[in-house]
Design a protein that fits this description.
This protein has a single domain, classed as Maf protein (Alpha-Beta Complex). The protein has six helices and five strands. A five-stranded mixed β-sheet has the order 2-1-3-4-5, sandwiched between helices. The protein is globular and about 45 Å long.
Length: 166
C-alpha cells in the first residue's frame, strides 16, 4: 500500500484532518493526497506559496524569519506548516520549501526542508537528493509524505501512552 493511502487510513480512523503548504513541490503533495478515494473526508486544502509574499501574507511567515534564515530553511518550513494548519484548522499540516533546480548560495540543487505541524508540535527535516527538476519534485513529495506519516504515527503513540482519547 502506498504512503498516501496509509496516511488516509490513519487520518480517517481517528477523525483527523490534513492541510499542506507547498513551495518547491508546487501542489504535487495535494495532488497525490487527493488521488486517494475518500480523501475529501480528511483533506481540507492547501496553499501553494511559491512566492515569498504568499508565504508572508497568507501563511504568516515573518519577513524577519526569512531574512535571518533564508527562504529554504527549517524555520520557514516550520512557519509554513504552522501557518497552513492554523489557516485551515487541520489536525496536521505538511510543508515544503526548497530548491528543485539551482542553488541559493547556501544549499545545493535538490535540497528541501520539510515541515510537519501536529498536536505534538512542529518538526522539520532536511532532505537532499541529486537529480533533474521533475525527479527532485517527485522525491521531495515522497519524502514529505513519509515524514508526515512518521509524525502521525508518533502522535498516535503519544496518545496511547498518555491514555488520551482520539
Amino acid at each position: 500500500m502506498n504512503v498516501e493511502k496509509r496516511i488516509g487510513l490513519l487520518l480517517k480512523e481517528h477523525g483527523w484532518t490534513l492541510s499542506a503548504a507547498e513551495s518547491c513541490t508546487g501542489g504535487r503533495i495535494s495532488h497525490i493526497i487527493t488521488t486517494v478515494s475518500g480523501s475529501s473526508s480528511y483533506y481540507l486544502g492547501s496553499v501553494t506559496s511559491y512566492a515569498i509574499c504568499v508565504k508572508e501574507q497568507v501563511l504568516g511567515v515573518s519577513s524577519e524569519t526569512i531574512a535571518a534564515n533564508g527562504v529554504v530553511s527549517s524555520e520557514v518550513a516550520a512557519s509554513m506548516a504552522e501557518g497552513v494548519r492554523k489557516l485551515m484548522g487541520s489536525t496536521f499540516a505538511v510543508a515544503t520549501t526548497g530548491l528543485a533546480e539551482g542553488s541559493d548560495g547556501h544549499y545545493p540543487e535538490g535540497t528541501v526542508w520539510l515541515g510537519v505541524s501536529s498536536p505534538e508540535g512542529t518538526f522539520t527535516r532536511l532532505f537532499q537528493i541529486s537529480g533533474e527538476r521533475k525527479a527532485n519534485i517527485r522525491r521531495f513529495t515522497t519524502a514529505a509524505l513519509l515524514f508526515l506519516e512518521q509524525n502521525i504515527k508518533m502522535h498516535i503513540k503519544h496518545c496511547k501512552q498518555d491514555n488520551k482519547t482520539f
